[in-house]
């Protein structure tokens, strides 16, 4: 029995804010993909439900019942487990770390206990990104995160993720957003032959949270320019509500070179080359 789970980093290749609900949540139209890097989970039956934190960012997230992993485990109503979360993704950074951890917990506990995986719409209460992370495949996200359309858009693409090592509060970024009725994505997203075609199409799309996030944390602008300045960067944009930004590259060699250059220039930043699936 497989006792470990993978919680991939989520990347919003574009994120359009197209409205707001009466309860304050924002209506989004976003192209979401998942990377081959992420957090790791392990679970084993135990007398009590416990969570151990490990990995480079294990000390930076809440332990105990406040952690989304514990909330997801409670929602599954599973037998008590000792869960270990190896945290490799920087927290509160726009790449869905907590949501992806919650989704990976649901997948892992469903597998270990033989229970059915909850439907995506049943896990929205854990966080607006949790339904998407439960699918963990390329998709168009609409509504506040409950309308999900899986997509098959082409071969995998190489990217570099960069974070200035400062946490950003998602509600603060939404509060700093001035215009809430922006243009959605086109009705149909085309297939992309390669990274260049994807970057060309994305250049006409946006992340509407980029400007408000920069107002909250100005160093995000430096991350975007540093990524844009790397050789062969096809497009640089922020993911989610920041502060992590991504650059898209034509191939693995270009992404690895950009990763090495950025690490040399910015030893204090978190920088990681990765590949994301588009199908
Ligand atoms: O659902 P989650 O806990 O991830 O959302 C964090 C906060 O981000 C919410 O409390 C809300 O302020 C904001 N949010 C929003 N619209 C969304 C998703 C999140 O306004 N679609």
TrEMBL record:
Catalytic-site annotation from UniProt: 10, 129
GO MF term list: 4-(cytidine 5'-diphospho)-2-C-methyl-D-erythritol kinase activity
Q: Name one Pfam family in it.
A: GHMP_kinases_C
Which top-level group of life is the source organism from? Bacteria
Q: What is its EC number?
A: 2.7.1.148
> Which intervals hold domain GHMP kinase N-terminal?
67-134
Catalytic reaction annotation: 4-CDP-2-C-methyl-D-erythritol + ATP = 4-CDP-2-C-methyl-D-erythritol 2-phosphate + ADP + H(+)
Binding, ATP: 90-100
Q: In which pathway does it act?
A: Isoprenoid biosynthesis; isopentenyl diphosphate biosynthesis via DXP pathway; isopentenyl diphosphate from 1-deoxy-D-xylulose 5-phosphate: step 3/6
UniProt entry keywords in alphabetical sequence: ATP-binding, Isoprene biosynthesis, Kinase, Nucleotide-binding, Transferase
Q: Does the keyword Transferase apply?
A: yes
Instruction: Answer whether the UniProt record assigns the keyword Glycoprotein to this protein.
Output: no
Q: Known NCBIfam families for this protein?
A: ispE, PRK14608.1
Alphabetical list of PANTHER family matching this protein: 4-DIPHOSPHOCYTIDYL-2-C-METHYL-D-ERYTHRITOL KINASE, CHLOROPLASTIC
Reported function = Catalyzes the phosphorylation of the position 2 hydroxy group of 4-diphosphocytidyl-2C-methyl-D-erythritol.
Family (UniProt)? Belongs to the GHMP kinase family. IspE subfamily.
The name this protein carries in UniProt is: 4-diphosphocytidyl-2-C-methyl-D-erythritol kinase
Which organism is this protein's natural source?
A: Plastorhodobacter daqingensis
The encoding gene is: ispE
